[in-house]
Design goal:
Helices cover 40% and strands 14% of the residues.
Length: 368
Amino acid sequence: MSLTPRFEAQNTKSSPHGGIDYAELEALGIAPEEVVDFSANLNPFGPPPGIKEAISKADINGYPDSRAGELRRLLADKLGVSEENIIVGSGSVELIRLAALAYFGRGDSVLIIEPTFGEYEVACQISGASIIKQRRAQKSFQLNIGETAGLIQQHRPKGIFIDNPNNPTGQYLSLEEFKKLLDVGGDSLLVLDEAYITFVDDVWSSVDIIRGDIIKGNRLLVLRSMTKDYALAGLRLGYGVAGEEIIATLRRLCPPWNVNAVAQQAGIAVVAAEGYLQECQVKLRQAKGYLVAELSRLGLPPVPSAANFLLLEVGDAPSFRRELLQRRFLVRDCTSFGLPAYVRISPRTLPECQRLVRAIEEMRGVGR
Protein backbone atom coordinates (compact mmCIF):
# COMPACT_ATOMS: atom_id res chain seq x y z
CA MET A 1 0.00 0.00 0.00
CA SER A 2 1.40 3.39 -0.96
CA LEU A 3 1.81 6.14 1.61
CA THR A 4 -1.09 8.58 1.31
CA PRO A 5 -1.06 12.08 2.77
CA ARG A 6 -4.14 13.26 4.60
CA PHE A 7 -7.00 14.64 2.51
CA GLU A 8 -6.19 18.29 3.22
CA ALA A 9 -2.57 17.89 2.13
CA GLN A 10 -3.63 16.24 -1.12
CA ASN A 11 -6.13 18.94 -2.01
CA THR A 12 -4.43 22.16 -0.89
CA LYS A 13 -3.44 24.41 -3.79
CA SER A 14 -0.68 26.97 -3.46
CA SER A 15 -1.36 30.65 -3.98
CA PRO A 16 0.68 32.69 -6.50
CA HIS A 17 2.36 35.84 -5.21
CA GLY A 18 4.05 38.93 -6.54
CA GLY A 19 7.82 39.18 -6.76
CA ILE A 20 10.44 37.82 -9.10
CA ASP A 21 10.19 34.22 -10.32
CA TYR A 22 13.86 33.37 -10.71
CA ALA A 23 13.20 30.20 -12.69
CA GLU A 24 11.08 32.18 -15.16
CA LEU A 25 13.81 34.77 -15.64
CA GLU A 26 16.42 32.06 -16.13
CA ALA A 27 14.28 30.46 -18.84
CA LEU A 28 13.91 33.83 -20.56
CA GLY A 29 17.60 34.62 -20.30
CA ILE A 30 16.93 37.71 -18.15
CA ALA A 31 19.18 38.54 -15.20
CA PRO A 32 17.19 39.39 -12.03
CA GLU A 33 19.10 42.64 -11.54
CA GLU A 34 17.83 43.85 -14.93
CA VAL A 35 14.20 43.74 -13.80
CA VAL A 36 12.39 46.60 -12.07
CA ASP A 37 9.81 44.91 -9.85
CA PHE A 38 6.44 46.68 -9.65
CA SER A 39 4.67 43.42 -8.71
CA ALA A 40 5.48 43.26 -4.98
CA ASN A 41 3.80 45.69 -2.57
CA LEU A 42 6.94 46.65 -0.69
CA ASN A 43 8.49 49.92 0.42
CA PRO A 44 10.65 50.66 -2.67
CA PHE A 45 13.07 52.85 -0.76
CA GLY A 46 14.64 49.97 1.13
CA PRO A 47 15.17 49.45 4.86
CA PRO A 48 15.94 52.41 7.15
CA PRO A 49 19.56 53.47 7.52
CA GLY A 50 21.59 51.41 9.97
CA ILE A 51 19.78 48.11 9.43
CA LYS A 52 22.81 46.30 8.04
CA GLU A 53 24.85 47.36 11.05
CA ALA A 54 22.06 46.28 13.41
CA ILE A 55 21.65 42.81 11.94
CA SER A 56 25.42 42.27 11.93
CA LYS A 57 25.15 42.18 15.72
CA ALA A 58 22.76 39.22 15.68
CA ASP A 59 24.09 36.17 17.52
CA ILE A 60 23.78 33.34 15.00
CA ASN A 61 25.76 30.84 17.09
CA GLY A 62 22.87 30.05 19.40
CA TYR A 63 19.10 29.69 19.13
CA PRO A 64 17.11 32.91 18.85
CA ASP A 65 14.67 34.03 21.52
CA SER A 66 11.71 31.76 20.82
CA ARG A 67 9.24 34.41 22.01
CA ALA A 68 11.03 37.41 20.42
CA GLY A 69 10.83 39.06 23.83
CA GLU A 70 12.65 42.33 23.17
CA LEU A 71 10.82 42.97 19.91
CA ARG A 72 7.48 42.20 21.56
CA ARG A 73 8.26 44.63 24.38
CA LEU A 74 9.06 47.41 21.92
CA LEU A 75 5.92 46.74 19.89
CA ALA A 76 3.81 46.62 23.05
CA ASP A 77 5.14 50.01 24.17
CA LYS A 78 4.52 51.48 20.73
CA LEU A 79 0.96 50.17 20.50
CA GLY A 80 -0.03 50.67 24.13
CA VAL A 81 -0.83 47.03 24.83
CA SER A 82 0.63 44.24 26.94
CA GLU A 83 3.40 41.97 25.65
CA GLU A 84 0.91 39.14 26.12
CA ASN A 85 -1.24 40.75 23.43
CA ILE A 86 1.46 40.30 20.76
CA ILE A 87 2.89 37.39 18.81
CA VAL A 88 5.71 37.78 16.29
CA GLY A 89 5.78 35.64 13.17
CA SER A 90 7.97 34.77 10.22
CA GLY A 91 5.84 37.05 8.08
CA SER A 92 2.10 37.46 8.51
CA VAL A 93 1.45 34.37 6.34
CA GLU A 94 2.73 32.16 9.16
CA LEU A 95 0.24 33.80 11.53
CA ILE A 96 -2.64 33.36 9.06
CA ARG A 97 -1.93 29.63 8.95
CA LEU A 98 -1.51 29.41 12.73
CA ALA A 99 -4.90 31.05 13.22
CA ALA A 100 -6.56 28.61 10.83
CA LEU A 101 -4.91 25.59 12.47
CA ALA A 102 -5.85 26.83 15.92
CA TYR A 103 -9.50 27.68 15.30
CA PHE A 104 -10.82 26.07 12.11
CA GLY A 105 -11.36 22.44 11.19
CA ARG A 106 -13.64 20.05 9.35
CA GLY A 107 -17.26 21.08 9.75
CA ASP A 108 -16.36 24.75 10.24
CA SER A 109 -17.04 27.43 7.66
CA VAL A 110 -14.97 30.56 7.04
CA LEU A 111 -16.03 33.68 5.14
CA ILE A 112 -13.61 35.11 2.56
CA ILE A 113 -14.42 38.25 0.56
CA GLU A 114 -12.96 38.07 -2.95
CA PRO A 115 -10.88 39.08 -4.77
CA THR A 116 -8.36 39.06 -1.95
CA PHE A 117 -5.09 37.61 -0.66
CA GLY A 118 -4.94 33.94 -1.69
CA GLU A 119 -3.32 32.70 1.52
CA TYR A 120 -6.61 32.90 3.40
CA GLU A 121 -8.05 30.15 1.23
CA VAL A 122 -4.83 28.12 1.45
CA ALA A 123 -4.96 28.29 5.25
CA CYS A 124 -8.57 27.10 5.26
CA GLN A 125 -7.73 24.23 2.92
CA ILE A 126 -4.90 23.13 5.21
CA SER A 127 -7.17 23.18 8.25
CA GLY A 128 -10.02 21.38 6.45
CA ALA A 129 -12.56 24.18 6.87
CA SER A 130 -15.13 24.90 4.19
CA ILE A 131 -15.17 28.33 2.56
CA ILE A 132 -18.03 30.75 2.05
CA LYS A 133 -17.19 33.32 -0.61
CA GLN A 134 -18.55 36.77 -1.26
CA ARG A 135 -17.55 38.57 -4.47
CA ARG A 136 -17.06 42.31 -4.54
CA ALA A 137 -18.96 44.34 -7.14
CA GLN A 138 -17.46 44.22 -10.63
CA LYS A 139 -15.53 47.26 -11.88
CA SER A 140 -15.89 49.36 -8.70
CA PHE A 141 -14.94 46.48 -6.36
CA GLN A 142 -16.84 48.20 -3.56
CA LEU A 143 -17.95 45.90 -0.76
CA ASN A 144 -21.66 45.58 -0.02
CA ILE A 145 -21.48 45.64 3.77
CA GLY A 146 -25.15 44.78 4.12
CA GLU A 147 -24.65 41.66 2.01
CA THR A 148 -21.60 40.69 4.06
CA ALA A 149 -23.51 41.11 7.30
CA GLY A 150 -26.33 39.00 5.87
CA LEU A 151 -23.94 36.18 4.95
CA ILE A 152 -22.48 36.24 8.46
CA GLN A 153 -25.92 36.09 10.06
CA GLN A 154 -27.03 33.33 7.70
CA HIS A 155 -24.00 31.03 7.93
CA ARG A 156 -22.54 31.90 11.36
CA PRO A 157 -18.99 31.16 10.15
CA LYS A 158 -16.31 30.10 12.61
CA GLY A 159 -13.96 32.63 11.02
CA ILE A 160 -13.96 35.75 8.86
CA PHE A 161 -10.93 37.07 6.96
CA ILE A 162 -10.88 40.78 6.13
CA ASP A 163 -7.98 42.37 4.27
CA ASN A 164 -8.00 46.12 5.03
CA PRO A 165 -6.92 47.77 2.79
CA ASN A 166 -7.82 44.95 0.47
CA ASN A 167 -5.28 43.32 -1.81
CA PRO A 168 -5.49 43.69 -4.83
CA THR A 169 -8.32 46.25 -5.05
CA GLY A 170 -7.05 48.83 -2.52
CA GLN A 171 -10.40 49.57 -0.84
CA TYR A 172 -10.29 50.54 2.83
CA LEU A 173 -13.23 49.85 5.14
CA SER A 174 -14.28 52.65 7.48
CA LEU A 175 -14.50 52.10 11.22
CA GLU A 176 -18.30 52.17 11.01
CA GLU A 177 -18.32 49.48 8.30
CA PHE A 178 -15.92 47.31 10.24
CA LYS A 179 -17.87 47.66 13.50
CA LYS A 180 -21.02 46.52 11.70
CA LEU A 181 -19.31 43.27 10.69
CA LEU A 182 -17.84 42.87 14.15
CA ASP A 183 -21.24 43.37 15.76
CA VAL A 184 -22.92 40.64 13.70
CA GLY A 185 -19.95 38.27 13.96
CA GLY A 186 -21.21 36.46 17.04
CA ASP A 187 -18.57 33.92 18.07
CA SER A 188 -16.59 34.17 14.83
CA LEU A 189 -12.85 34.79 14.93
CA LEU A 190 -12.37 37.92 12.84
CA VAL A 191 -8.88 38.05 11.33
CA LEU A 192 -8.19 41.64 10.27
CA ASP A 193 -5.16 41.71 7.98
CA GLU A 194 -3.62 45.19 8.01
CA ALA A 195 -0.50 44.35 6.02
CA TYR A 196 -0.69 47.64 4.10
CA ILE A 197 -2.11 49.92 6.78
CA THR A 198 1.07 52.02 7.02
CA PHE A 199 0.54 53.31 3.49
CA VAL A 200 -3.08 54.46 4.05
CA ASP A 201 -4.02 58.04 4.88
CA ASP A 202 -6.57 58.78 7.63
CA VAL A 203 -6.57 55.38 9.31
CA TRP A 204 -8.62 54.32 12.30
CA SER A 205 -7.08 52.22 15.08
CA SER A 206 -7.95 48.54 15.23
CA VAL A 207 -5.68 48.23 18.27
CA ASP A 208 -8.02 50.62 20.11
CA ILE A 209 -10.77 48.04 19.58
CA ILE A 210 -8.63 45.34 21.15
CA ARG A 211 -7.77 47.64 24.07
CA GLY A 212 -11.35 48.81 24.50
CA ASP A 213 -14.56 47.37 25.78
CA ILE A 214 -16.20 46.53 22.44
CA ILE A 215 -15.16 42.89 22.45
CA LYS A 216 -12.31 42.90 25.01
CA GLY A 217 -10.00 41.45 22.39
CA ASN A 218 -11.56 37.99 22.53
CA ARG A 219 -12.70 37.64 18.89
CA LEU A 220 -10.39 39.94 16.93
CA LEU A 221 -6.92 39.12 15.64
CA VAL A 222 -5.10 41.99 13.91
CA LEU A 223 -2.16 41.13 11.66
CA ARG A 224 0.56 43.57 10.61
CA SER A 225 3.56 43.22 8.28
CA MET A 226 6.97 44.68 9.01
CA THR A 227 8.22 43.09 5.80
CA LYS A 228 6.29 45.55 3.63
CA ASP A 229 6.72 48.65 5.78
CA TYR A 230 10.48 48.42 6.05
CA ALA A 231 11.45 46.41 2.92
CA LEU A 232 12.48 43.30 4.89
CA ALA A 233 11.00 40.72 2.51
CA GLY A 234 14.18 38.65 2.59
CA LEU A 235 13.95 38.29 6.38
CA ARG A 236 10.18 37.63 6.82
CA LEU A 237 8.71 39.49 9.78
CA GLY A 238 5.19 40.25 10.95
CA TYR A 239 3.15 40.33 14.13
CA GLY A 240 -0.33 39.77 15.48
CA VAL A 241 -2.25 41.70 18.13
CA ALA A 242 -5.17 40.17 20.02
CA GLY A 243 -6.55 39.34 23.43
CA GLU A 244 -4.30 37.24 25.66
CA GLU A 245 -6.37 34.08 25.17
CA ILE A 246 -5.98 34.19 21.37
CA ILE A 247 -2.27 34.95 21.55
CA ALA A 248 -1.68 32.15 24.06
CA THR A 249 -3.51 29.71 21.76
CA LEU A 250 -1.38 30.72 18.77
CA ARG A 251 1.78 30.41 20.86
CA ARG A 252 0.95 26.80 21.68
CA LEU A 253 0.94 25.92 17.97
CA CYS A 254 3.78 28.19 16.94
CA PRO A 255 7.03 26.41 16.01
CA PRO A 256 9.94 27.12 18.38
CA TRP A 257 12.44 29.70 17.11
CA ASN A 258 10.03 30.68 14.33
CA VAL A 259 11.64 34.13 13.92
CA ASN A 260 15.38 33.96 13.35
CA ALA A 261 17.90 36.09 15.23
CA VAL A 262 18.69 38.32 12.25
CA ALA A 263 15.01 39.13 11.64
CA GLN A 264 14.50 39.91 15.32
CA GLN A 265 17.44 42.33 15.34
CA ALA A 266 16.10 44.03 12.21
CA GLY A 267 12.67 44.36 13.82
CA ILE A 268 14.14 45.88 16.97
CA ALA A 269 16.06 48.40 14.87
CA VAL A 270 13.12 49.52 12.72
CA VAL A 271 10.49 49.96 15.44
CA ALA A 272 11.94 53.38 16.22
CA ALA A 273 12.17 54.40 12.56
CA GLU A 274 8.87 56.30 12.40
CA GLY A 275 10.51 59.36 10.83
CA TYR A 276 11.87 57.21 8.03
CA LEU A 277 8.45 55.76 7.28
CA GLN A 278 6.91 59.22 7.12
CA GLU A 279 9.54 60.29 4.58
CA CYS A 280 8.79 57.21 2.47
CA GLN A 281 5.05 57.87 2.64
CA VAL A 282 5.50 61.35 1.19
CA LYS A 283 7.59 60.07 -1.72
CA LEU A 284 5.26 57.13 -2.36
CA ARG A 285 2.24 59.44 -2.41
CA GLN A 286 3.96 61.52 -5.09
CA ALA A 287 4.86 58.46 -7.19
CA LYS A 288 1.36 57.01 -6.85
CA GLY A 289 -0.23 60.29 -7.93
CA TYR A 290 2.03 60.40 -10.96
CA LEU A 291 1.11 56.85 -11.98
CA VAL A 292 -2.63 57.45 -11.55
CA ALA A 293 -2.47 60.54 -13.76
CA GLU A 294 -0.26 58.99 -16.45
CA LEU A 295 -2.04 55.63 -16.61
CA SER A 296 -5.36 57.46 -16.89
CA ARG A 297 -3.91 59.52 -19.76
CA LEU A 298 -3.01 56.26 -21.48
CA GLY A 299 -6.56 54.94 -21.16
CA LEU A 300 -5.76 52.68 -18.19
CA PRO A 301 -7.39 54.45 -15.22
CA PRO A 302 -6.65 52.53 -12.00
CA VAL A 303 -9.37 51.48 -9.59
CA PRO A 304 -9.43 54.07 -6.76
CA SER A 305 -7.07 52.74 -4.09
CA ALA A 306 -6.26 53.76 -0.54
CA ALA A 307 -3.20 51.49 -0.52
CA ASN A 308 0.30 51.48 -2.00
CA PHE A 309 -0.77 49.56 -5.10
CA LEU A 310 -3.03 50.11 -8.10
CA LEU A 311 -5.37 47.72 -9.91
CA LEU A 312 -5.98 48.46 -13.59
CA GLU A 313 -7.88 46.76 -16.37
CA VAL A 314 -5.63 46.01 -19.35
CA GLY A 315 -7.64 43.42 -21.30
CA ASP A 316 -5.28 40.44 -21.37
CA ALA A 317 -3.28 40.47 -18.14
CA PRO A 318 -0.86 37.60 -18.95
CA SER A 319 0.00 39.18 -22.30
CA PHE A 320 0.41 42.65 -20.79
CA ARG A 321 2.70 41.27 -18.09
CA ARG A 322 4.72 39.29 -20.61
CA GLU A 323 5.27 42.29 -22.88
CA LEU A 324 6.41 44.43 -19.97
CA LEU A 325 8.73 41.72 -18.69
CA GLN A 326 10.40 41.63 -22.09
CA ARG A 327 11.11 45.31 -21.45
CA ARG A 328 12.46 44.40 -18.00
CA PHE A 329 9.49 45.61 -15.95
CA LEU A 330 7.49 43.20 -13.77
CA VAL A 331 3.83 43.75 -12.80
CA ARG A 332 1.39 41.41 -11.07
CA ASP A 333 -0.91 39.40 -13.31
CA CYS A 334 -4.16 39.20 -11.32
CA THR A 335 -5.53 36.08 -13.02
CA SER A 336 -4.97 34.16 -9.78
CA PHE A 337 -7.34 36.62 -8.07
CA GLY A 338 -10.00 35.69 -10.63
CA LEU A 339 -9.23 38.88 -12.58
CA PRO A 340 -7.62 37.80 -15.88
CA ALA A 341 -8.14 41.27 -17.38
CA TYR A 342 -6.34 43.13 -14.58
CA VAL A 343 -2.80 43.75 -13.40
CA ARG A 344 -1.60 45.23 -10.12
CA ILE A 345 1.17 47.82 -10.02
CA SER A 346 2.96 49.01 -6.88
CA PRO A 347 4.52 52.48 -7.16
CA ARG A 348 8.30 52.65 -6.89
CA THR A 349 10.60 55.66 -7.05
CA LEU A 350 9.42 58.47 -9.31
CA PRO A 351 12.18 57.91 -11.93
CA GLU A 352 11.30 54.20 -12.07
CA CYS A 353 7.61 55.06 -12.47
CA GLN A 354 8.51 57.40 -15.33
CA ARG A 355 10.42 54.60 -17.05
CA LEU A 356 7.46 52.24 -16.63
CA VAL A 357 5.10 54.77 -18.21
CA ARG A 358 7.42 55.16 -21.21
CA ALA A 359 7.46 51.35 -21.62
CA ILE A 360 3.65 51.22 -21.57
CA GLU A 361 3.53 54.06 -24.09
CA GLU A 362 5.73 52.01 -26.41
CA MET A 363 3.50 48.96 -25.99
CA ARG A 364 0.37 50.95 -26.77
CA GLY A 365 1.95 52.95 -29.57
CA VAL A 366 1.34 56.23 -27.79
CA GLY A 367 3.70 59.20 -27.99
CA ARG A 368 3.75 62.46 -26.14
